């Protein structure tokens, strides 16, 4: 098995390959563009979550469930807070390093570890409910619908666990690609389906109760002479709006699928390992090269494209009010207009970087920095 350090190296190599430069010296990240701010972000509260993302290119994303927000750091600290005040409700220090999280819902807080463990905590107290063994590293948040917990592992297996006991109910096996980015997207779970994007560029849907295949759809076809050029991982997670599933692959395509059948509604060339956002009839995409795009859902044409954040290692976008929020490697949070892609605000959250997707809930934006700073922001 490849070690996490190897996977981190492979990710760096893949990002460089994805820049498309034929010169020996890669271009540096773009300087921050100047603009006139149109609004101001207000910090409502800020908390430190231990060591944050750690050194292994984790992408730990907090989870909001009701009026609580849950966050974890790479060393195993899990923390629950009131999402409006930031008051700490409980802390739990696990004995294992956390690499996948956080999942929350139905009274559970769920994380995965580098050693292939899935840990369920009680959402009210932080006490451990159960611990289960997966087949390899868990690099994304487990998901639950109250009946089953579904976890995706680094080796492209999808595992269904009983939500009450943690006992394995089923396992869906799939052969991973020869070379992949370090990471997986978090599985998406409905009452009937468990859906996941794979390192081979496919999306699969299985019956959530029994793990039997329902549909499979290829989003990207590996192309190129080298294994680096043939990386087509779906690592950015999946997004559902109504009955439409949005998915993007690295060095592949952005696609809209019918949630129930997997039928392709539309697709266009794209490359991203962080995922998409959707709102106001548009899909928003952080490309691997740092270009941010707004794409019309009906015509599939680009409404606007902003390339001023080139090579700044952007996070996944998030729709926040009338804007698109995303972070970069220097820890700046950018707000871009959904209408035309212009910059409207910027603030620095964590000098170690912003790798995790921001989370927007009810007019509040939660941003978790690589160094462990969790900040709640609103628009003044």
From TrEMBL:
Keyword list, A-Z: Cell outer membrane, Lipoprotein, Membrane, Palmitate, Signal
Keyword ATP-binding carried by entry: no
Keyword Lipoprotein: yes
GO CC, one annotated term: cell outer membrane
Domain Pyrrolo-quinoline quinone repeat as annotated: residue spans: 75-306
Domain of life: Bacteria
A GO BP annotation: Gram-negative-bacterium-type cell outer membrane assembly
UniProt-annotated location(s): Cell outer membrane
Signal peptide range in chain numbering: 1-17
Membrane protein topology class: Lipid-anchor
PROSITE patterns: PROKAR_LIPOPROTEIN (PS51257)
NCBIfam families in UniProt: assembly_YfgL
Role summary: Part of the outer membrane protein assembly complex, which is involved in assembly and insertion of beta-barrel proteins into the outer membrane.
Quaternary structure note: Part of the Bam complex.
Assigned protein family: Belongs to the BamB family.
Protein name (record): Outer membrane protein assembly factor BamB
Organism: Pseudomonas flexibilis
């Amino acid at each position: 098995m490849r070690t996490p350090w190897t996977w981190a190296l492979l990710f760096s190599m893949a990002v460089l390959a994805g820049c498309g430069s034929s010169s020996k010296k890669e271009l540096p990240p773009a300087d921050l563009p100047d603009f006139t701010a149109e609004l101001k972000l207000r910090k409502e509260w800020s908390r430190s979550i231990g060591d944050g993302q750690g050194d292994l290119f984790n992408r730990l994303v907090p989870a909001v469930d009701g009026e609580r927000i849950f966050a974890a750091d790479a060393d195993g600290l899990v923390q629950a807070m009131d999402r409006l005040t930031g008051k700490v409700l409980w802390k739990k220090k696990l004995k294992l390093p956390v690499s996948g999280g956080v999942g929350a819902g139905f009274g559970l807080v769920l994380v995965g570890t580098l050693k292939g463990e899935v840990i369920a905590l009680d959402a009210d107290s932080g006490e451990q409910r159960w611990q289960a063994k997966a087949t390899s590293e868990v690099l994304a948040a487990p998901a639950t619908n109250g009946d089953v917990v579904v976890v995706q592992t680094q080796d492209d297996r999808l595992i269904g666990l009983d939500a009450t006991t943690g006992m394995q109910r089923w396992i869906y096996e799939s052969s991973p690609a020869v070379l992949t980015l370090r990471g997986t997207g978090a599985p998406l779970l409905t009452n009937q389906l468990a859906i996941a994007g794979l390192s081979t560029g496919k999306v699969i849907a299985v019956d959530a109760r029994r793990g039997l295949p329902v549909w499979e759809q290829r989003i990207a076809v590996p192309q190129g002479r080298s294994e680096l050029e043939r990386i087509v991982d779906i690592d950015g997670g999946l997004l559902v709006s109504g009955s439409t599933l949005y998915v993007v692959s690295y060095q592949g395509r952005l696609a809209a699928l019918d949630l129930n059948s997997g039928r392709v509604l539309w697709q266009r060339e794209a490359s991203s390992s962080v995922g998409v956002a959707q709102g106001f009839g548009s899909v928003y995409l952080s490309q691997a090269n740092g270009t941010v795009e707004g794409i019309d859902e009906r015509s599939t044409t680009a409404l606007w494209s902003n390339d001023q954040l080139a090579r700044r290692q952007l996070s996944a976008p998030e729709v926040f009010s009338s804007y698109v929020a995303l972070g970069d490697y220097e820890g700046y949070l950018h707000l871009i207009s959904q209408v035309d892609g212009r910059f409207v605000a910027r603030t620095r959250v964590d000098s170690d970087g912003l790798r995790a997707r921001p989370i927007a809930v009810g007019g509040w934006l939660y941003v978790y920095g690589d160094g462990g700073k969790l900040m709640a922001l609103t628009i003044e």
